[in-house]
Amino acid sequence: MEFVTGTAKKERAELAAILAGELDEKQVTVNGIVHTVRAMGEVVFVILRKRDGLLQCVLEMKETDVDVKLIREAAAVEVSGVIRREERAPGGFEVRIEEIRILSEPAEPMPFAVSRWKLPVTLETNLDHRAVALRNMRERAKFKIQEGIVRGFRDFLYGEGFTEVHTPKLGAKSAEGGANLFKLEYFHRPAVLQQSPQFYKQMLVGVFERVFETAPVFRAEKHNTKRHLNEYTSLDFEMGFIDDFTDLMEMEAGFLRYTMRLLEAEYAGELALLGITLPDTERIPVIRFDEAKQKVAEAYGRQIRSPYDLEPEEEALIGQYVKETYGADFVFVTHYPSRKRPFYAMDDPKDPAYTLSFDLLYDGLEITTGGQRIHDYQMLLDKIEARGMTTEGMEQYLEVFRCGMPPHGGLGIGLERLTMKLIGEDNVRETTLFPRDITRLEP
Amino acid sequence: MEFVTGTAKKERAELAAILAGELDEKQVTVNGIVHTVRAMGEVVFVILRKRDGLLQCVLEMKETDVDVKLIREAAAVEVSGVIRREERAPGGFEVRIEEIRILSEPAEPMPFAVSRWKLPVTLETNLDHRAVALRNMRERAKFKIQEGIVRGFRDFLYGEGFTEVHTPKLGAKSAEGGANLFKLEYFHRPAVLQQSPQFYKQMLVGVFERVFETAPVFRAEKHNTKRHLNEYTSLDFEMGFIDDFTDLMEMEAGFLRYTMRLLEAEYAGELALLGITLPDTERIPVIRFDEAKQKVAEAYGRQIRSPYDLEPEEEALIGQYVKETYGADFVFVTHYPSRKRPFYAMDDPKDPAYTLSFDLLYDGLEITTGGQRIHDYQMLLDKIEARGMTTEGMEQYLEVFRCGMPPHGGLGIGLERLTMKLIGEDNVRETTLFPRDITRLEP
Questions:
Q1: Which residues of B fall within a CB distance of 8 Å from A212?
Q2: In what order do the strands lie in the sheet with B330-334?
Q3: Does A249 touch chain B if contact means CB atoms closer than 8 Å?
Q4: Per-residue pLDDT tens for A358-401?
Q5: Domain contains A192
Q6: For B170, which of A131, A163, A231 is closest by C-beta distance?
Q7: What residues of A are in contact with residue B198 (Cβ under 8 Å)?
Q8: B253 in a domain, yes or no?
Q9: Quick check: pTM over 0.95?
Q10: CB 3.0-4.6 Å disulfide test: which of A67, B59, B349, B395 passes with B97?
């Protein structure tokens, strides 16, 4: 009987160790994908693409019997040789190739040059060949940044006493209801895909007090804009024992600050590759919905057309306004009108036409919706009745309120939108690995 | 203009600080849910349930004008008073109540006594009132352990150079195909819910070399057993540049070991509450599929009925066999027959009737399926053809192989099953927050 002991056979040199100078003058074996091959007379440069960057390998034609024609772009190879300090190499080190072993070869050339600094294709072509396009260094760097954001969200919230939860995406009913639900048949019963974990995260506040989830949500919206997806990753949290809804905004600002520091510390290479300057998250201005509308109408001579909601153009102008006035990249807009918020939103006792809620705008785009929720059973029933809604299918949701719930609230952050703004893209598909929109279900 | 600075107003005492003795003799305000109220003559004990444990609060009837009748089980309260060392209190400290503020009250009594050590209801009743049942201390502890497992998975893999990815759950086609797909309409086109991120994680090996995902998967299987769910959380990873499929097993064993240490270090309270002894993950035996079948047939006098697959009873007996023989809780079973593995599985060049694959059994239950995948384009096409399958809908999957892929493999771990075995439950619904099975779509 053999045994597995969880110890990897680390015979391959890692890029980080090479570039840190730990293997200088050492004989190593290193693997990677052939990024480019450049023959310069008697010397051939083989640049390997590794998961964390590029590595220059050099082949002296005089000293080798390696057949260079076999080294093709996109081949997976294993190189043996000696590490040498070399100022002109990316990262300051290179491998002098002694042997090169082809692990696998492409069957055909790439549909476009992924090794180029900027991918030479339109977004449509990029998305049609997504898994190939993502091999481009800058394309993949976007998703390392995205990873950093999700890590920051989780690590910050673990530290704040939150519990991570996994709630079902298949259900009989969803929190917001309405037309934007994907419907399916579940063993001869009608079912929906959850458009948000709202009901579940609230129910779990009664259990864990503070919960978060990072999971897909599904919206059958027919919008086909640069900022809409039909499936996206939502960073959700919900917390009990809040004094008021500003506790939620402080928590979100804390997450953003923590995450920017994490990115600086652990994703510096990707930030540099993409030329990203991190936004200021130390002081985020707060403005009421009605004031924001008014200010923007005055400042930019724009007529208020829809009094209960912010139009995308208004959001953009609010972003512009706080940038010009406070140098701020983010702004919390608070007290949205009750009629545009879901039934579970807590109305402002001072003026029930407004809710104790907020959106967070980043560079003029909504990336978060949040607020305090109703925790009182009777108040919840009254609001459901006042809206002419039915409690059917909400029995278990309502039961937790009947059994007592602390004052609470929460929020949801659109991961792809936050990544998009951080990176400075203008289409949310650029920061989604495999986007789903009204026309795109593949790859 | 006000500003949010990400600084929470920490006026409330946290349980950890109280139990660490940091607030001894201090005046504090602390909040929580009333877990139990016990009147003992002149003294009333109010036990608060907080997110990380229980806190004893004591009210001296002579010295207070608090109306005890208002303090009901399940109410959310805020208590002010002085912290005192008290040996008989859970954790060694209590709060001498001076003031108690009711933040919210339940409308009705709980449907059952959640404060009991063991919940006095059947699993069916538990699941029907899930969000209330989870308030029980031991019920919720299971999901803290589950959190620890997912944290361990991610943190270990980050450390091993993996990139976290988010792949779409809505698609035109899924990796395994077949009858167990949930189907839906996607803007007048047929779509499916992904039964695994298989295609996507393989495609992303070409991008990031090593990737993982922790996300829901959907299986429309009609099995209604103690170990099946129709939606579950899959811990998936896929890695390139493997030498052979044992690299994958070593990585999984590394994850298990890392996670057991994380649980010991950070979830000791929950382990104690549930009376869990962690399994041995230092040495995991490995046995070939056909040998395992044979050994179990011999050892337990069991006839081999299905030569190409392991029956649940056989898995259980293999678990028993390695426990009796090696004291092992886990066992890797390798080289499953090709005809029972999907088309993308790499056949063993020494005997193509078997694959370079494995399952991990934990206490006789399959919790992981993994293996090396085919990375050669032509080999993949040949296998698809040999199986009489069509490449339709797989164009983008196949494109990454045409453009070159390193040798690679991966695995998927059923989170709820792993949690179930770790905790010693025998029904996977016990370790799923809101389970989905053939009869259950709510809550």
A1: none
A2: A2-4, B284-288, B330-334, B357-362, B365-373, B408-414, B231-240, B210-218, B163-164
A3: yes
A4: 999 999 999 999 999 999 999 999 999 999 999 988 999 999 99
A5: yes
A6: A231
A7: none
A8: yes
A9: yes
A10: B59
